[in-house]
Amino acid sequence: MASDEQERRELDRAVAMSQSMTGGPLSIGQESGVIEARKPQFGPATREHYETAKWTMTLPGAHAREILENPDPPHRQREPRGPAFLKPSLEDTRLPALIKILHAIPLAREALLDLDHTIPDYGIDAEWWDGVNIDVRTLQVAYPEEEENQANSHKVIYEIQRLMAFLDQTERAYGSADGLMQLIKATTQCKVDQSLGTILEAWAAATLDADPETPLAEILMSEARRIYSEHAEPEIHPCWCLELSIPEDSDSGPLRCRTLYDVVDFALWGSLQEGRSEYAYLHKLGDVLCVQLTRQSKDQSTGLGIRIPAIWYLDRYLETSREQALDMLAAERALRKEVERIDHATARITNYKSSTGDQEYNALALIEQAKQHFANRGPAIETTNGTSPDLGKDWSERPLIELQRLAENIAQKLKSTDPHSLLLPMPLTMRLLALEISRTRALEKFADISQWYTKASEDPKEPPHYKYLLRGVSSSKETIYVLESDDTIDDFATSKANANEWQWWKLSYASGHTEALSRSVSSMSLG
User: Fold this and answer.
1) Domain range holding 406?
2) Are strands 174-175 and 85-86 parallel, antiparallel or unpaired?
3) Which of 266, 328, 352, 358 has the most crowded Cβ, counting Cβ within 10 A?
4) Does one domain contain both 465 and 503?
5) Pair (314, 232) in one structural domain
6) 247-292 pLDDT, tens per residue?
């Protein structure tokens, strides 16, 4: 770009910013100012001295924003064979990680580039990489017949195209998606900070607005359906991201949600009732699936606690697998009831209720706690001069001895026949052992049933057939795991064809440190 052309663009941009701060364009010869003011007015500093108690410096509201401190310049350079990424957003969103992971998937990257809908000049701003939007008023692209929302939707497309090109060719270690976030907020009335589905839907709407016949939006879209009776029309739920919530009661217990399959089972079928014809399934699967996992509980300190498979099969959720899925759900429901029955029977033997009847205690565990209490307590009586009375060793150990006798008595009864119960004709320990064996078998059977359609069949003609490969994970706002090409960025177009050159990368960003970046090859594998 010629120097005079660059100077002209900078001048146009400065004029546009000046007009926006004064409330609109100025005609030739017209001046702007304050001739009478009863309220405080803010403007440039013109005096040599100001009283600090009455004056302060500020920024115009349209330009004031919080920033993340960047590392020192030497640490912002991209590694020769390492991938670039987008730093965490100031918003509560995983959008930067989503854009990075989609960029690493060739099909998703081509969709986001949208090469059939481009503009000749994408503008320039020295701070764009750090989240500053490029002022499109400086671009020689006019849409006089477009409405404001339509123009904003096109800006979303152009900003995503900039980010794709940036991640392809930049020499910087990282960029920012804050500008894209602000544009998406301008095109939708919904809160988009945490919902990745809303963000992808905004992009799809912009793409379809630019070209209603484009197939690009279909690449990321899936469709779920729910029917409430055999003859009723199904409810249709298009989804650009599977937003799944892990139930609170899955934090503990043998039947808690352990894998991604368990979470999807709960999302689709958790509300189904036995004997009703209500059913939910996935009607359409996008070529690329985005999944967002959150916990219902507010405690996020322990992570999600969910295993994510490297290869994910979705056959069990399709309409063609309805009968088999219903059989699986019925078997799981029966086994859950069996485990609950066994746990209840075990509790009747080992526990007792409080006098109020609202709490249950394990007898032996409670006695052990009482023993620890009296062992740490010491003498209970003192004389007036502060010394303990000479009551002998038996005084401090008497509660321990009594508790030990009680524990031995209970343990002995558990080993003998209960003469007062017709329900337990065998020794209680044998009864407990039998219950434990039954419980273990039920859990093993439950685990086997839950594995249905989660592994490839030995017969290639038999399901499952619909599989998806894990390509990226955002474990936190600051850390991303992504499967990237192991080739240089200059060979980007050709390296994608060779699957043997792919490897996992761990990309981390920590604000406020001089060396805030961490890029390393992860030990994750698709095995």
Assistant:
1) 339-381+391-448
2) parallel
3) 328
4) no
5) yes
6) 876 545 666 778 899 999 999 998 887 767 789 999 999 999 999 9
